[in-house]
């Protein structure tokens, strides 16, 4: 049973969250040095109150993991997993505990580091708290999964409400994917929006504090784009797995191009509002528009590039060099509207040439 | 005039060859593609529908190339999957509206199809609440939308009840009268008795031959 949970839920979780982990390791590795991690850990283990805040972040990660597993268990493809209730309770609970431990690898691994620091500093209360916390996180997850496995068709009030509303309202097709994110991947959507809000707010806050020019915003736009890459990947997978019929629909390349643009423009509305409401002195409305056209162009180009080759390794390689090149061009003060125009033309060309050549086959390792 | 012309067709997954056809000309009519599980019927249908990339050429009515005239071609070629899968939070109405708009469905067509395939009772519900038979009926409605030249129905008889089969036959005959060509597939020995089958093709040994 451990093997089947591992092949279905665990493997799928890490496959779908490659970009999330890349972003976490990038932020943890680039913005903080090793000794800074150590200093924070030392402060945390010496101050239980601070440790509780750190644990709050670990708990958020646990919620992300649990919601993912719940989503997988709702999918028809994985309905066979409900057969696991036919195994003995001990065996099933053990398998679920192993699953939860592996899913929580990131937070448990980081907490192990805190445990080590607490041991070195002989902070016994923190040692106790960390062990109990990790234990509770695993037990909490196991109880939720166990409950779900015994109630395969449970319907929450929220689902029931959306179901009733759906009867009366039509969902326009450009909202299909956004509904998918709200319904199936709310934590991913929330994480992306929070991270994006962090960068937009950060640059708005930084801009007046020193002699920065608008390149600061352009670099912020680059970060906003990088955060949204994961949504491009989800949309690509979604199109192939959930609405594969769209490839049979008579849409021109321009129409498909506009549809992707509209989806991501809607997704960028929170950032546009935050920026527009806090626009710093000296930054024109025209710049604000060109700024979001630039961020959107980066996202659309990435979306198009997935049709060239969506496999993680090649896509990541291409994304890396593309980001570095854009970074350098921004630093050399190449106008962002020019960059945006090049991005739009390139993405249109790629969609025109490669859209129908793309195929989504998940290879078994 | 051939309704569909296929030249040098080859479809593989990675290096595994699924179907290879040197030349196949399909005339107007109702055609039955027979073959066992895994013979490549669905892959062939999906390629013709434009869902899968392949090597070779496919031309509709001697003028619409699947790649060069991607929009015109897709406006005229409809397809219903053997085991349809749609996002469970959408309703049948959401999907019908979307595809009807894209395929330029004439006014009143959706209502007529909803009635013909008797899906009115559940079409406003979320797809996640549908049984496999209800999903199949929805996919059939979607396949008849617009003004297609070809409708491909992959395993149309599985999971639907006797009444729905009768309704589908009557729809096929009705559309056939206005010149629509049908490509039907089945792995079982369904005879499509109610239909006037023009030709039967055998999908076997990684190719398609008259059978």
Overall SS class of chain B: alpha/beta
| Termini separation of chain A | 20 Å
- Taking pLDDT < 50 over at least 5 consecutive residues as the criterion, the unreliable ranges of chain B are none
Quaternary structure: heterodimer
Distance between the termini of chain B: 22 Å
- Could you name the CATH class of chain B? Alpha Beta
Number of strands of chain B: 10
Number of domains of chain B: 1
Order of helices and strands of chain A: HHHHHHHHHHHHHHHH
- Low-confidence segments of chain A, ≥5 residues, pLDDT <50? none
**How many strands in all of chain A?**
0
Would you mind describing this structure in some detail?
With 365 residues, chain A is an all-alpha fold. Chain A has two domains: 2-154; 173-357, no CATH class. In chain A, 77% of the residues lie in helices and 0% in strands. Chain A is built from 16 helices and no strands. In chain A, helix 6 (105-120) runs antiparallel to helix 7 and helix 12 (253-267) crosses helix 14. The longest helix of chain A is centred in the N-terminal third of the chain and has 27 residues, at 48-74. Chain A is globular. The model of chain A has no long low-confidence stretch (mean pLDDT 86). With 211 residues, chain B is an alpha/beta fold. Chain B has a single domain, classed as Rossmann fold, CATH 3.40.50. Helix content of chain B is 30%, strand content 28%. Chain B contains six helices and ten strands. In chain B, the strands form two sheets. In chain B, strands 6-7-8-3-9-10 form a six-stranded mixed β-sheet, with helices on both faces. In chain B, strands 2-1-4-5 form a four-stranded antiparallel β-sheet, covered by helices on one side. In chain B, strand 9 and strand 10 form a beta hairpin. Chain B is globular, with a radius of gyration of 17 Å. In chain B, 47% of the residues are buried.
């Amino acid at each position: 049973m451990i093997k089947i949970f591992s092949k279905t839920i665990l493997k799928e979780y890490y496959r779908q969250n490659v970009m999330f982990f890349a972003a976490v390791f990038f932020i943890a590795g680039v913005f903080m040095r090793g000794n800074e991690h150590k200093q924070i850990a030392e402060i945390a283990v010496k101050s239980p109150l601070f440790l509780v805040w750190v644990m709050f972040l670990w708990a958020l990660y646990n919620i992300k993991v649990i919601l993912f597993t719940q989503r997988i268990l709702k999918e028809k493809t994985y309905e066979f997993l409900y057969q696991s209730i036919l195994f003995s309770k001990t065996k099933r609970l053990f398998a679920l505990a192993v699953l939860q431990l592996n899913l929580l690898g990131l937070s448990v691994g980081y907490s192990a580091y805190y445990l080590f620091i607490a041991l070195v500093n002989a902070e016994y209360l923190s040692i106790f708290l960390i062990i109990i916390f990790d234990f509770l996180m695993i037990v909490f997850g196991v109880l939720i999964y166990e409950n779900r496995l015994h109630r395969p068709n449970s319907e929450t009030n929220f689902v029931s409400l959306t179901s009733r509303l759906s009867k009366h309202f039509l969902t326009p097709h450009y909202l299909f994917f956004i509904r998918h994110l709200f319904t199936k991947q709310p934590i991913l959507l929330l994480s992306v929006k929070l991270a994006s809000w962090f960068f937009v707010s950060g640059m708005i806050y930084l801009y007046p504090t020193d002699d920065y020019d608008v390149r600061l915003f352009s670099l912020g736009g680059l970060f906003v784009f990088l955060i949204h890459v994961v949504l491009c990947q989800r949309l690509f997978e979604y199109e192939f797995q959930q609405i594969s019929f769209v490839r049979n629909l008579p849409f021109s390349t321009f129409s498909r191009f506009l549809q992707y643009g509209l989806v991501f423009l809607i997704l960028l509305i929170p950032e546009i509002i935050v920026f527009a409401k806090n626009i710093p002195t000296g930054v024109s409305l025209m710049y604000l528009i060109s700024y979001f056209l630039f961020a959107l162009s980066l996202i659309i180009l990435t979306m198009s590039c997935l049709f060239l080759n969506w496999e993680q390794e090649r896509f990541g390689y291409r994304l890396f060099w593309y980001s570095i090149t854009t970074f350098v061009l921004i630093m050399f003060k190449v106008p962002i509207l020019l960059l945006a125009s090049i991005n739009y033309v390139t993405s249109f060309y790629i969609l025109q040439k490669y859209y129908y050549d793309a195929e989504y086959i998940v290879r078994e390792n | 005039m051939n309704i569909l012309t296929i030249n040098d067709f080859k479809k593989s997954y990675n290096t595994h060859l699924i179907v290879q056809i040197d030349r196949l000309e399909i005339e107007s009519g109702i055609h039955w593609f027979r073959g066992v599980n895994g013979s490549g019927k669905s892959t062939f249908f999906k390629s013709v529908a434009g869902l899968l990339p392949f090597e070779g050429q496919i031309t509709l009515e001697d003028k619409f190339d699947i790649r060069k005239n991607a929009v015109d071609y897709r406006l005229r070629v409809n397809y219903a999957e053997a085991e349809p899968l749609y996002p469970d939070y959408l309703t049948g109405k959401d999907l019908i509206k979307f595809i009807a708009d894209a395929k330029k469905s004439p006014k009143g067509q959706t209502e007529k199809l909803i009635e013909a395939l008797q899906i009115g009772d559940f079409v406003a519900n979320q797809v996640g609440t549908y049984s496999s038979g209800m999903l199949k009926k929805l996919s059939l409605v979607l396949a008849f939308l617009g003004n297609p030249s070809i409708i491909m129905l992959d395993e149309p008889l599985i999971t639907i009840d006797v009444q729905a089969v009768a309704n589908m036959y009557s729809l096929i005959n009705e559309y056939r009268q206005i010149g629509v060509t049908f490509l039907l597939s089945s792995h079982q020995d369904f005879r499509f008795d109610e239909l006037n089958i023009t030709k039967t093709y055998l999908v076997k040994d990684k190719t398609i031959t008259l059978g």
